[in-house]
TrEMBL record:
Top EC group: lyase
Pfam families: CMD
Annotated GO MF terms: 4-carboxymuconolactone decarboxylase activity; peroxiredoxin activity
E.C. no: 4.1.1.44
Lineage per the UniProt record: Bacteria, Pseudomonadati, Pseudomonadota, Betaproteobacteria, Burkholderiales
Organism per entry: Pandoraea apista
Protein name: 4-carboxymuconolactone decarboxylase
Alphabetical UniProt keywords: Lyase
Amino acid sequence: MNDQERYDNGMQVRRAVLGDAHVDRTLTRRNEFNDDFQNFITRFAWGDVWTRPGLTRHMRSMITLSLLIALNRGDEFRMHVRAAFNNGVTRDEMKELFMHAALYCGLPAANQAIHDAEKVFAEMEAAEPGSTTRVRNDAQG
């Protein structure tokens, strides 16, 4: 696969996972300074790693959330909470992930993740008032 094919595949997955609105915002902010970086993450993160056949996107979202909790990367974590719903991750699965992360990453990291996730849930529900099914618990949905 050449770089253009990798970029095109990466952009397709990036849009599917993060959503068109998010990707469009990043594209409108591209400039001479960050263009190489945007190209790099599209080709390698999304075009190489996220397209590999060994894991589902659902599993990749769960792994990504776990790693971002451990690394205390709040902005990226909140972005991937939103993205996880596009990959079929439920609130109940996230709740279990946070409990598990509390053991291995520490209570403060998991506590912060819970608060950050709750903010994202509220923002998503406010943006789609009649369509909260994307952020419901399994038992509610």
